[in-house]
Amino acid sequence: MKVTTLQPSTGPAHHSSAPAEQARQLRVASHSHIKGLGLSETGEALSTGSGFIGQAQAREACGVVVDLIRLRKFSGRGLLLAGPPGTGKTALAMAISHELGTKVPFRILVASEVYSAEVKKTEVLAENFRRAIGIRVKETKEVYEGELTELTPTEAPNPLSGYGKTISHVVIGLKTVKGTKQLRLDPGVYEAIMKERIVVGDVVYIEQNTGAVKRVGRSDAYATEFDLESETYVPLPKGDVHKRKELVQDLNLHDLDAANARPQGGQDIMSVMGQLVKGRRTEVTDKLRAEVNKVVKGYVDQGVAEIVPGVLFIDEVHMLDIECFSYLSRALESPMAPHVIFATNRGVTLVRGTDDITSAHGMPSDLLDRCLIVKTEPYSRNEIKRVLEVRAVVEGLSVSEEALDKLADEGNNSSLRYALQLLSPAAILAGVAGRTEILPEDVSETHDLFLDAKRSARGLEDWGNATTN
Ligand SMILES: Nc1ncnc2c1ncn2[C@@H]1O[C@H](COP(=O)(O)OP(=O)(O)OP(=O)(O)O)[C@@H](O)[C@H]1O
Asked: Using an 8 Å Cβ cutoff, are 424 and 29 in contact?
């Protein structure tokens, strides 16, 4: 049996998500029940379509925007979601992203994030713009693909330290419909296999010239009717183990900017795309971005790559200042701009960075004129109750009808977000009382333990008055 040796991949290390990124992911989790705008074929809002309750008019308006985006008739324009806090503006932006599809990048930026000590405001905006522009690269490569039938690492004495063992090489077996093949792999590829948590029975492919390993899924020969995890089962690959395969990589322009700012060498797609621009770089500059754009445009013209404009959601847009707004106006003109959705809960207010210019939502009129504005309405008590119901199901909490009513009252008196935030603590208190179901007493106790903004502000005011008298 012919055995082939492969070299390890030397592509850029993929950094784990930074705290900011993790905070961003947490933000997304609170909308995990939102699966889309919940519209019928004719664009009418369904009563609880896709986890969305109420806001029928705003959802239908956003449905029209999704159609405009799909028809590529939305470039250079923005969507502004204006409404009181907790009326589903972020949820609508998430729903639009779902409607556009998982391959469309979606980026959340809270406007106040642009004010950071180290990085220029417009640089933060530029980076978020680039992260919201996807690029899909198709390339045909020589790969070894199949169901993993054998994974045998061979140990050898550690040549460096004289004690302990190291992996000298690993032998794997790959099976396809047509046959099997044994491969002798470099330790670096074995580490990649371990990192991807690949086990015997998984269907994988290994790129021949980089040794990059990709887990496609679990072979459906192992599918059992009792499996609980959300495993993706895939059929046994057809054809030979060694074949030419079209690989699709979904990146965003910031990935390319960063890879070019710190070229790391190597053959995998990130490294290749990371060497588009000659010469050593240290940071991402507008000049670098312009060069990356030029090369990307060349790839698009050759049909190797496709630009996927994503969604950049800028929450609390009234926090941006005049300098940021002028950057946004220019950036929206760029042919490679993402679709920008703004959200604000402010009315007429001062445009930050100016002394005396007030305007609707704190945005300059020239930018406002380019936006479609969608209003979100406060929820009725019944709608708040239904949102709480949907959220409780998603969070796996069981709530009695009376407790749900009590929470809905809290939401009605204070805010939807406050009521939603009482759900998990109430579940904890129910657990402490040895119950799995949340009852009204748990809601009352959490109401006393955790204040809403109005009560806490009033409490401090009373305290302030008491101490000054
Ligand atoms: N109509 C709705 N249906 C289902 N869930 C909703 C709805 N509206 C809001 N939510 C949920 O309520 C919570 C608060 O909503 P969201 O964050 O969208 O409000 P917002 O208008 O963006 O608030 P803010 O102005 O403070 O950013 C989120 O968990 C969101 O998923």
From this structure: no
* Contact by Cβ (8 Å): 147, 235: no
Which residue minimizes the CA distance to atom 23 of ligand 1?
A: 86
Clarify whether residues 278 and 167 are in a common domain. Answer: yes
**Residue 66 domain flag:** yes
Q: Where does 303-375 have alpha helices with state H?
A: 322-333, 365-368
Query: For position 428, which CATH number holds?
Result: 1.10.8.60
Which residue has 């004719």 as its token pair? 42
386 lines ligand 1 (CB under 6 A): no
Whether 319 and 362 share a structural domain: yes
Classify residue 214: in a domain, yes or no. yes
User: ipTM for the complex?
Assistant: 0.96
Cα of 353 vs centre of ligand 1, distance in Å, is 29
- pLDDT computed for residue 8 by the predictor: 35
Whether 402 and 388 map to the same domain: the answer is yes
DSSP string, 228-286: -S-PPEEPPP-S-SEEEEEEEEEEEHHHHHHHHHS----SSHHHHHTTSS-S--SS--H
pLDDT digits (tens, 9 = 90+) for 373-393: 999 999 999 999 999 999 998
Number of domains in the chain: 3
In terms of domains, do 366 and 388 share one? Answer: no
Same domain, residue pair 75 and 196: no
- The residue contributing the CA closest to ligand 1 atom 6 is 88
Give yes or no for residue 347 CB within 6 A of ligand 1: no
**What pLDDT score was predicted for residue 267?**
59
Does position 17 have pLDDT exceeding 60, yes or no? no
Which mutation among 387, 420, 421, 424 tests ligand 1's pocket best, with the greatest number of atoms within 8 A of CB?
A: 387
CA 90 – ligand 1 centroid, Å? 6
The preferred substitution site among 60, 395, 416 for testing ligand 1, maximizing ligand atoms within 8 Å of CB, is: 416
Q: What is the pLDDT of residues 137-167, one digit of tens each?
A: 988 889 999 999 999 998 888 777 767 788 8
- How far, in Å, CA of 334 to CA of 187, rounded? 46
Q: Is residue 316 part of a domain?
A: yes
CA of 265 relative to ligand 1 center, distance in Å: 44
**Structural domain of 446:** 381-454
Instruction: Decide: 421 in ligand 1 pocket, CB within 6 A.
Output: no
Within-domain flag for 35: no
Together in a domain, 229 and 167: yes
